[in-house]
């Protein structure tokens, strides 16, 4: 059963004119891994199958299609796909959790660790350094991992709103309490946060696209 997919992988590589070393470098694996796949000793995962399809210029249908049953391998691919999806979900959750933790800490620091004399220092440290830096780097990682696909760009607006809320929940709220009045949010902060996020996400996505092209050229 393993020899079926292994032979197809080997034939596709040979027809594309690539050596095992060249294929291994393009796929970011070892030459021994390529050999194990082609000799039927191990299975390639779903990500590697997709990359081989692009590298060898062969459709996934032709690469996987076989007259005899391949239920074992297809079950393995399904399991691999679920593993990749779970890892992506975990990565996304970690990115959002880290940002929310930094955002929450910025609010707690203002209300519990500063007084009137520390307000300017807080503004410089959190609103103009920590939060913008966190927004930029989290957005960069979202772009470089292409998390959420085309919908990732919507997160720029979310980051902008969170940036605006950080200011509103600290300085503006303290001002309203002190002078017993109501202030509208500084909506310009939303635009600033969104721009910072878009810059980070754009750079990250450019790196992602460049990496895909490099691997495809091999």
Overview of the molecule:
- With about 220 residues, the protein is mainly α.
- The chain folds into 2 domains: about 1-70, 434 Repressor (Amino-terminal Domain) (Orthogonal Bundle), CATH 1.10.260.40; about 90-215, no CATH class.
- The protein has helices spanning about 1-15, 20-25, 30-40, 45-55, 60-65, 70-115, 120-145, 155-180, 190-215.
- α7 (about 120-145) runs antiparallel to α8 (about 155-180).
- The protein is elongated.
- The mean pLDDT is about 85.
- Pfam families: HTH_3 (PF01381).
- InterPro entries: Cro/C1-type_HTH (IPR001387), Lambda_DNA-bd_dom_sf (IPR010982).
Which keywords apply here?
218 residues; mainly alpha; 434 Repressor (Amino-terminal Domain); 2 domains; 9 helices; 0% strand
Strand content: under 5%
Task: Give the end-to-end Cα distance, rounded to a whole number of Å.
Answer: 29 Å
Mean pLDDT: 85
Helix content: over 70%
Number of domains: 2
User: Structural class, from helix and strand content?
Assistant: mainly alpha
Shape: elongated
The biggest beta sheet is recorded as: none
Note poorly predicted spans.
none
Protein name: Helix-turn-helix domain-containing protein
GO molecular function, one term: DNA binding
Transmembrane segments: 93-113, 119-141, 153-171, 191-210
Pfam families: HTH_3
Give the structure's gist in a few sentences.
The chain is mainly α and 218 residues long.
Can you lay out the helices and strands and say which pair or pack?
Elements: H1 2-16, H2 20-27, H3 31-38, H4 46-55, H5 60-64, H6 71-113, H7 119-144, H8 155-179, H9 188-217
